[in-house]
Write a structure and sequence with these properties.
Layout (H helix, E strand, L loop, with lengths): L10 E7 L2 E9 L23 E9 L5 E6 L10 H8 L8 E7 L12 H16 L3 E6 L1 H12 L4 E7 L19 H9 L12 H9 L4 H14 L13 E6 L7 H10 L3 E6 L6 H4 L1 H15 L10 E2 L12
Parallel strand pairs: 4-5, 4-6, 6-7, 7-8, 8-9
Antiparallel strand pairs: 1-2, 2-3, 3-5, 9-10
Helix pairs in contact: 1-9, 2-3, 4-5
């Protein structure tokens, strides 16, 4: 995996970090600013050649394992998926340990048409093509879940199954509401705390990291544009076309995508199972990682025919022919 095919025209670098391998995939994207891989470099725009966007992909688990791609929401970071990924990488049932790939898409640094649900969907699809090389289970929180739905419908050959947690696509109280031109620390703190049921569940440094991210030039504008794009891209009439088995993991105290949203997804997606996580807000993979991982492990067993699935799940009635693809 030292390089990519000539037809791709991008670059890939791998480096180690604790128990996660890191891969930076640079995707050519027309009409965008080239965001440098190294923080020390300055962004430079050019209309004379193909531009590019680097996506940091971190892997936990064997490369031969069942691939699961994790997608962040706005201001989400790869570390938010570490605990879940470590548990899945230690799986002993079915085909064994999962190959967990966490996608660090630089959302607030995207530009032009790429700063949209459409743009992020294209970008993530290309990264899956190049890093996975085939279909994967796609898990997404918030905006990441929205993108996962789009890939499942538009690029079904890249998706084996879906895991959605606090996903946008139907209704979401997005971060752009009341966003300041230069968000203050107090505004950022309030927004981050609103994502959690218990403040004690907020990982150390999360608020400070979000404030640093939002302090970047154009970050607030990017948040507003992505939030508006997500609202405009309402999935209500299209969700019935998702032809992949889906696991919904939802915090009962989620006030960003409230429980009614989970119930609507549950009614609309043909083959799904809904798992509620109590005393949990918008990000169950952070606030209740063990419960998230246990539900996912049971879902994987169900997909591979070695288990009944999450025992506490509310199930939809799957129409004939849906959700029965072999993994």
């Amino acid at each position: 995996m030292a390089g990519l095919p000539d037809s791709f025209g991008g670059t890939l670098r791998r480096r180690g970090k604790s128990d996660a391998n890191q891969v930076t995939v640079t995707i050519p994207v027309p009409s965008t600013v080239r965001v440098p891989v190294d923080d020390a470099a300055e962004p430079a725009s050019s209309a004379a050649h193909s531009e590019s966007t680097p996506v940091l992909v971190e892997e936990i688990g064997p490369r031969t394992g069942l691939p699961i791609c994790f997608l962040n929401g706005l201001l989400g970071v790869n570390e938010h998926w570490y605990d879940v990924s470590r548990t899945l990488a230690a799986r002993t049932t079915g085909s064994g340990a999962a190959r967990c790939l966490i996608f660090g898409v630089p959302l607030v640094e995207l530009r032009s048409k790429d700063l949209s649900v459409d743009g992020v969907t294209r970008l993530v699809s290309r990264v899956i093509e190049e890093v996975v090389g085939g279909p994967a289970i796609i898990a997404g929180n918030s905006l990441g879940g929205h993108v996962a739905q789009r890939i499942a419908m538009e690029r079904p050959e890249l998706c084996k199954a879906l895991i959605l947690a606090g996903s946008s696509g139907l209704f979401e109280r997005t971060l752009e509401r009341g966003v300041e031109h230069r968000p203050s620390f107090e505004w950022t703190e309030k927004k981050i705390k609103g994502l959690f049921f218990e403040e004690a569940s907020i990982p150390p440094g999360t608020i400070e990291r979000a404030y640093e991210e939002l302090s970047k030039r154009y970050a607030a504008r990017a948040i507003v544009k992505l939030g508006r794009s997500a609202k405009a891209d309402h999935m209500g009439d299209r969700i019935i076309h998702i032809r992949k088995p889906t696991l919904l993991i939802w915090g009962r105290q989620d006030n960003v995508t409230p429980p009614q949203v989970a119930e609507e997804f549950h009614e609309l997606i043909p083959d799904n199972r809904l798992v509620w996580v109590d005393r949990c807000g918008h990000a169950p993979m952070i606030e209740r990682p063990q419960e998230f991982a246990e539900a996912t492990l049971a879902f994987l067993d169900e997909l591979e025919g070695v288990g009944p699935g999450p025992s506490n799940a509310e199930r939809s009635s799957s129409p004939p022919g849906l959700g029965d693809e072999e993994l």
